UniProtKB/TrEMBL annotation, chain A:
The lineage of its organism: Bacteria, Pseudomonadati, Pseudomonadota, Alphaproteobacteria, Hyphomicrobiales. Residues 1-23 form the signal peptide. It comes from Mesorhizobium ciceri biovar biserrulae (strain HAMBI 2942 / LMG 23838 / WSM1271). It comes from the Bacteria. Residues 28-168 form the DUF4142 domain. Keywords: Signal. Pfam families: DUF4142 (PF13628). This is DUF4142 domain-containing protein. InterPro entries: DUF4142, Ferritin-like.
From TrEMBL, chain B:
CDD domains: Amicyanin. This is Blue (Type 1) copper domain protein. The keyword Signal applies. It comes from Mesorhizobium ciceri biovar biserrulae (strain HAMBI 2942 / LMG 23838 / WSM1271). SUPFAM superfamilies: Cupredoxins.
Length: 174, 102
């Protein structure tokens, strides 16, 4: 992960583009596995915060759906990497995602009531959109192993579903 | 379709007992209802077979909802005629349609 890579990442972050978008280097399968798993963990952690904080049934139900689905995807991901004898490899994209998510969670943690609900759900829409873009344009096309690619494709459908579900919940909060 | 209507008309006219209720399977695999469109009749049962590790629903906006747990099946007996679109409430990009004859 070259200077060029880091510079591109910094530039994109400054422009407010997703941490994913630094397509200077094509990720390897071990990196893709790590990115996909990390993306799931991030959404689970945000959802757990929402389950703790929100009093809105729609929001809590949505958050529970996120925990359930992303835990199920990640179980499949772990089974697959074990089967393929691939060790997920940390990488700048995973690190950037985790950093951005930690900041977002800190922001959310300070909010309460309707302000929290709106910020959480809006972030869910944006986050799933971002992950979908990365899956479509970077992760799926870069994946070498057919089973990994197939799992990512299922993941994309799940995430697209979540994006629409989040949009629906966002619409109800208005 | 025309033949179908004719047949129904004929059946009704002659007073033959309609065909027995059937169970029609719809498989869910990787977030796809298959077949996406099912033709059935009132009294038939739709059985959704969920091959995914994810929970899904078959939900009609303003109507019924069937919960379909991961790796399980769930059924609904059709009570009203007419075409009806359904979707998964958890993953609204999953869509299906039932065309229910009287």
């Amino acid at each position: 992960m070259s200077i060029r890579h880091t510079a591109a990442l910094a530039a994109l972050l400054l422009l407010g583009t997703a941490p994913f978008a630094q397509a200077a280097d094509k990720p390897t399968d071990p990196q893709i596995a790590h990115i996909a798993y990390t993306a799931g963990v991030i959404d689970i952690e945000a959802a757990k915060l929402a389950i703790d904080k929100s009093k809105n049934k729609e929001v809590v139900d949505f958050a529970k759906d996120m925990v359930r689905d992303h835990e199920a995807v990640n179980v499949q991901a772990l089974d697959l990497v074990k089967k393929l004898k691939v060790t997920p490899e940390d990488n700048p994209t995973s690190k950037a995602l985790t950093k951005a998510a930690t900041e977002e969670r800190a922001k959310l943690a300070k909010l309460h009531g309707a302000a929290f609900d709106k910020a959480y759900v809006d972030n869910e829409v944006a986050y799933h959109k971002q992950v979908n873009g990365a899956l479509e344009t970077l992760l799926i096309p870069s994946a070498q192993n057919a089973e990994l690619k197939s799992l990512l494709e299922t993941g994309l459908k799940i995430f697209q579903g979540h994006e629409q579900h989040a949009e629906h919940v966002a619409g109800m909060l208005k | 379709m025309q033949n179908h209507h004719l047949w129904i008309a004929l059946t009704l006219a002659v007073g033959i007992v309609p065909a027995q209720a059937e169970t029609i399977q719809v498989t869910i695999d990787r977030l796809v209802f298959s077949p996406a469109t099912v033709e059935a009749k009132v009294g038939d049962t739709i059985e959704w077979v969920n091959k995914d590790v994810f929970a899904h629903t078959a939900t009609v906006k303003g109507g019924w909802e069937v919960m379909i747990p991961p790796k399980k099946s769930a059924s609904l007996t059709l009570k009203t005629a007419g075409p009806v679109d359904y979707f998964c409430r958890f993953h609204p990009n999953m869509k299906g349609r039932l065309v229910v004859a009287p």
